[in-house]
Design brief:
0% strand, Farnesyl Diphosphate Synthase, single chain
Length: 285
């Protein structure tokens, strides 16, 4: 919070988004000013609550911080903003149909990370992805502009595809935090033991497991694209920019044969910008 004292709320969220290195930032660059201001503030909110889980080592303190955010969200929708992120976001919530339950769902997903480090099966993981990514996709689609209710389904599916891509990319980093997001039933199907992942032991069995996860992610992208109504194709270009960046990242991980236990595969900023521009200018994704 000390950083915010010398900044306006708008400067705070812009700094939060720009310094995160996220692929989302590159899609924001092509939006109109109102949409850009709103999505930047919304993304900063997501980063604030997610960073609590990743950076606060004491679960009790992290839980208290997330509880504070839940109350802060409720207060903000009653007109009392206690944080620069909420001060930047709240002026746009009515125009872009953002509700308190959207923000509370994202916090609920982050709370799951404090109490759950394993997921038994795919439906269990999908519930987590719904909260931390599907809802984010839905809100993003509202901000980008949609005329069809089906666009919400597209955005939700796309958000889940992004999250599974993140899970694939971050297997090694999550293991260092004691977390395994890959469903236990999938580990069992490929005879991969949890302790092998936690100790970051690569094997042909692990690579086969990751190929299975990657195939599911690719299916989610295809399902999302099939759900996007033609009438919302133009306004939803920012999401398609992110999809182009994330799918390219996933393809790179596949080509490298899933080195995710020991390294973080990433794209350069210039490549992300190029992929975003291709969607904006040429419609290629």
């Amino acid at each position: 919070m000390a950083q915010s004292l010398s900044m306006t709320p708008q400067q705070y969220v812009q700094d939060k988004a720009a310094t995160s290195g996220s692929s989302f930032y590159y899609a924001f660059l092509f939006l109109s000013k109102p949409k850009r201001l709103c999505i930047t503030a919304f993304y900063a909110f997501c980063r604030e609550v997610d960073d609590i889980v990743d950076e606060v080592t004491e679960p009790g303190i992290a839980a208290s911080k997330l509880a504070w955010w839940k109350q802060a969200v409720l207060d903000a929708f009653e007109g009392q903003m206690h944080h620069p992120v909420l001060k930047a976001l709240m002026p746009w919530t009515q125009a872009f149909h953002i509700k308190s339950h959207h923000l509370l769902s994202i916090i609920e997903g982050c709370e799951m990370d404090l109490t759950q480090t394993r997921y038994l099966d795919r439906p269990g993981l999908e519930q987590y992805c719904h909260l931390v990514a599907g809802v984010v996709g839905e809100v993003s689609a509202l901000i980008f502009g949609q005329s069809s209710a089906q666009t919400t389904q597209y955005a939700h599916r796309l958000g889940q595809a992004f999250q599974l891509t993140n899970i694939i990319r971050d297997v090694g980093e999550d293991a260092m935090r004691g977390r395994i997001y890959l469903p236990i039933t999938d580990l069992q199907a490929f005879d991969v033991k949890a302790h092998e992942i936690l100790n970051r032991v690569d094997s042909e069995r692990f690579q086969a497991l990751m190929a299975h996860q990657s195939l599911r992610a690719q299916e989610l992208y295809k399902e999302a694209f099939a759900l996007l109504p033609q009438e919302d194709l133009r306004t939803q270009k920012p999401g398609l920019m992110m999809a182009s960046i994330y799918r390219t990242l996933l393809n790179e991980i596949e080509l490298a044969k899933y080195p995710v236990l020991t390294q973080r595969v990433s794209l350069t900023p210039i490549r992300k910008l190029w992929l975003a521009w291709k969607v904006q200018a040429l419609g290629l994704f």
